[in-house]
Amino acid sequence: MELTAQQLSEYNGTDPSKPIYVAVKGRIFDVTNGKSFYGPGGSYAMFAGKDASRALAKMSKNDEDVSPSLDGLSEKEIGVLNDWEKKFEAKYPVEAFGPKVIVGIVSCATARPGCPFEVPST
């Protein structure tokens, strides 16, 4: 299953009849079991219904960083993001994939077959 950013936003925890989703590097995780963190009033609620890749990489809760864009991130920040991705994989099921995005020089498509990211052609 694939979701657009608009569809993903519907899973932000405000509707108790729907699960809570957070995307990391285009993979959408069901974080409903962590609703005390990701649900309304939770310390990571700003990530719910969004791709939080950039914010996780930068260890930021700023609204402007809650984005799927990896452009301009340092190698260290990419490493932090990869660590977060592993934590999500260990704790939450993958429910869907988000829209494909171009991520610049650093891309999981070069490291992992089947990655939802596309590498730009030069």
Give me the secondary-structure topology.
Layout: H1 5-8, E1 21-24, E2 27-30, H2 35-38, H3 53-58, H4 75-91, E3 94-97
Antiparallel strand pairs: 1-2, 2-3
Walk me through what this model shows:
- The chain is 25% helix and 10% strand.
- The protein has four helices and three strands.
- It has a three-stranded antiparallel β-sheet, with helices on one face.
- The relative contact order is 0.21.
- It starts with a helix and ends in a 25-residue tail after the last strand.
- By secondary structure, the protein is α+β, with helices and mostly antiparallel strands.
- A hairpin with a 2-residue loop joins strand 1 and strand 2.
- It is globular.
- Belongs to the cytochrome b5 family. MAPR subfamily.
- This is Cytochrome b5 heme-binding domain-containing protein.
Features:
122 residues, alpha+beta, three-stranded antiparallel sheet, 4 helices
Net shape: globular
Give Rg in angstroms. 14 Å
Helix content: 25-40%
- Structure annotation, total helices: 4
**Structural class estimated from helices and strands:** alpha+beta
Strand order of the largest sheet: 1-2-3
What fraction of the residues are assigned to beta strands by DSSP?
A: 5-15%
Low-confidence residue ranges: 101-122
Instruction: Spell the H/E element sequence.
Output: HEEHHHE
Could you give the count of β-strands?
3
Report the end-to-end length measured between terminal Cα atoms.
30 Å
What can be said about the biggest beta sheet?
3 strands, antiparallel
Rounded average pLDDT = 83
